Amino acid sequence: MSIENDVKQFVVTTFAPDLTPDQLPSDFDLLDNGVVDSLGLLRLIGWVGERYGIPVEEQDISPAQFSSVAAITAFVTDLHSFV
């Protein structure tokens, strides 16, 4: 499973159970559209760190990096090669 599909699956399962991964556009803003709130953002960051072995507590993270599936995929792809 690709990182993008993995992230989509987590997002719909955790935050939008009425959607399927195919129904969630990769560029859909999860924060601005209320799919993920501030507490959900922390959960999402924690999941990314655990799932991909990224020490997120050591990263300079901004909400923009977790605003969409595409942004999360880019974050993981950029950092995964360095850990």
Structure description:
- This protein has 83 residues and is an all-alpha fold.
- It has one domain (3-80): Orthogonal Bundle (Non-ribosomal Peptide Synthetase Peptidyl Carrier Protein, Chain A), CATH 1.10.1200.10.
- It is 48% helix and 0% strand.
- Helix 1 (3-15) crosses helix 3 (69-80).
- The longest helix has 15 residues, at 38-52.
- The model has no long low-confidence stretch (mean pLDDT 93).
- Helix-strand sequence: HHH
- Note the overall shape: globular
The CATH homologous superfamily is called ACP-like
How many helical elements? 3
Structural class: mainly alpha
Total count of strands: 0
The CATH class name reads Mainly Alpha
**What gyration radius follows from the Cα positions, in whole Å?**
12 Å
The major beta sheet can be summarized as:
none
Strand content: under 5%
Q: Pick out the low-confidence regions.
A: none
According to CATH, the fold-level topology is: Non-ribosomal Peptide Synthetase Peptidyl Carrier Protein, Chain A
Q: What's the CATH architecture? A: Orthogonal Bundle
Helix content: 40-55%
Structural topology:
Blueprint: H1 3-15, H2 38-52, H3 69-80
Helix pairs in contact: 1-3
Features:
48% helix; mainly alpha; 83 residues; Non-ribosomal Peptide Synthetase Peptidyl Carrier Protein, Chain A; globular
Task: Describe this structure in a few short sentences.
The chain has 83 residues and is mainly α. Helix content is 48%, strand content 0%.
